[in-house]
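Action item from last meeting closed. Structure (417 res):
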């Protein structure tokens, strides 16, 4: 069978496909320790709350009503109005329903936005998406219709006390030419747990405005929900910002609900693309979470339950890792948010893909770090081959057992066993 150019590009085994395969394998093979995926933790209070919401919707017939009807291509009206109200009330943003569109997961939104604002233009010009700080989210890397769609800037790497380090945007090296159509960052960042500082965001916003291009902030882990942020980061939005949010990390990855908050021109474009590609986004997630958006319970749940849960888990995992791997070459990115720890093994004697394979053979799944550098063309950059990502938010016994396997392998590699 012959596949088109599109078919060849989108049917290959991308990094994100490997990740989702492993996630599935981890869920089906009973003895695998799954510290690889981006699945949110099963937090009992959150599950109990959602269960109670679902029961209520079943009782009132609202659930059946939601799934027995198509929503419009912009997404469920009642949910969009409630969310606009919540964002205006909580954050003071001038956001109305015309600023919000829903998609089937934010992954779908990235695909629309990356191809809406970059790629080939009618007059023959080509534009790219710029990631000002690599490493960046693995899921962006293959979401473009054409090749060479992304460009990224290496970070300023600063070692901190206590075996930690932090990435900063290297504004001196950052070049934003006329061939850039969109600047994109995740905040907090998957894979590193970095949270761009307020100054960095303001600076990026300024650059984007000067260039007349939007700044996309992927807020999948951010404020006001699920608010998995452990630093004092100011929420940021204006009419040049495209903020992507999601119900996934709140505990609902299965409903596939992404949210785009942007100026009405972008929202109308997303709505029209949604109509062509999907007819309408799914209605389950918006129906299930409508009451918590209206009541503001989603903020309480995020601040009182979700954030403290993840923060405690992150601190615990850092302590276990540092105890198990007491090497000067071992650095952990300062955990400032999201579900992951980003581990850097300086001068690692093997490629992180090989490390991933060795760990997988011993029943531990992590994600090798080299996938997280979309847009970086420097094949010889050692740092990009020395890191792995670990999901710290899985059951304690799994995290401890996983760290034991990792420590054994790493200590042997550095000749310390
Ligand atoms: N953005 C980031 C930074 C993520 O880590 C993820 C999922 O892991 C997503 C977006 C995808 O979210 P969704 O489930 O809404 O497609």
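Sequence:
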């Amino acid at each position: 069978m012959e596949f088109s150019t599109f078919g060849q590009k989108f049917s290959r085994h991308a990094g994100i496909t490997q990740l989702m395969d492993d996630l599935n394998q981890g869920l089906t093979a009973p003895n695998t320790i799954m510290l690889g995926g981006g699945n949110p933790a099963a937090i009992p209070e959150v599950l109990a709350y959602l269960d109670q919401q679902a029961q209520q919707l079943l009782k009132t017939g609202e659930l059946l009503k939601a799934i027995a009807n198509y929503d419009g291509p912009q997404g469920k009206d009642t949910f969009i109005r409630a969310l606009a109200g919540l964002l205006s009330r909580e954050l003071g943003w001038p956001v109305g329903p015309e600023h919000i569109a829903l998609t089937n997961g934010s992954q779908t939104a990235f695909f629309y936005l990356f191809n809406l604002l970059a790629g080939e233009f009618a007059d023959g010009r080509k534009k790219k998406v710029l990631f000002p700080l690599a490493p960046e989210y693995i899921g962006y890397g293959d979401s473009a219709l054409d090749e060479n769609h992304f460009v990224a800037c290496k970070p300023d790497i600063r070692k901190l006390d206590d075996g930690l380090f932090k990435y900063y945007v290297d504004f001196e090296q950052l070049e934003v030419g006329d061939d850039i159509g969109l600047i994109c960052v995740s905040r907090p960042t998957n894979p590193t747990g970095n949270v761009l500082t307020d100054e960095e965001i303001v600076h990026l916003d300024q650059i984007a405005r000067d260039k007349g291009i939007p700044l996309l902030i992927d807020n999948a882990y951010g404020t006001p929900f699920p608010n998995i942020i452990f630093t004092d980061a100011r929420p940021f939005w204006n009419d040049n910002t495209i903020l992507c949010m999601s119900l996934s990390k709140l505990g609902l990855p299965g409903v596939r609900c992404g949210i785009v908050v942007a100026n009405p021109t972008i929202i109308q474009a997303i709505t029209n693309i949604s109509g062509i590609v999907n007819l309408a986004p799914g209605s389950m997630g918006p129906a299930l979470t409508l009451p918590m958006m209206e009541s503001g319970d989603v903020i309480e749940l995020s601040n009182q339950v979700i954030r403290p849960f993840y923060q405690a888990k992150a601190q615990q995992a850092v302590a276990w890792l540092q105890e198990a791997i007491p090497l000067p070459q071992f650095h952990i990115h300062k955990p400032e948010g999201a579900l992951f720890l980003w581990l850097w093994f300086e001068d690692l004697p093997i490629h992180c893909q090989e490390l991933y394979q060795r760990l997988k053979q011993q029943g531990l799944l992590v994600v090798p770090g080299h996938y997280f550098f979309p847009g970086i063309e420097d094949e010889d950059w050692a740092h990009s081959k020395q890191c792995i990502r670990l999901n710290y938010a899985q059951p304690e016994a799994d995290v401890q057992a996983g760290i034991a396997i990792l420590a054994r392998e790493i200590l042997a590699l550095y000749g310390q066993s």
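Note appended to the action item: The chain has two domains: 5-46+301-413, 71-296.
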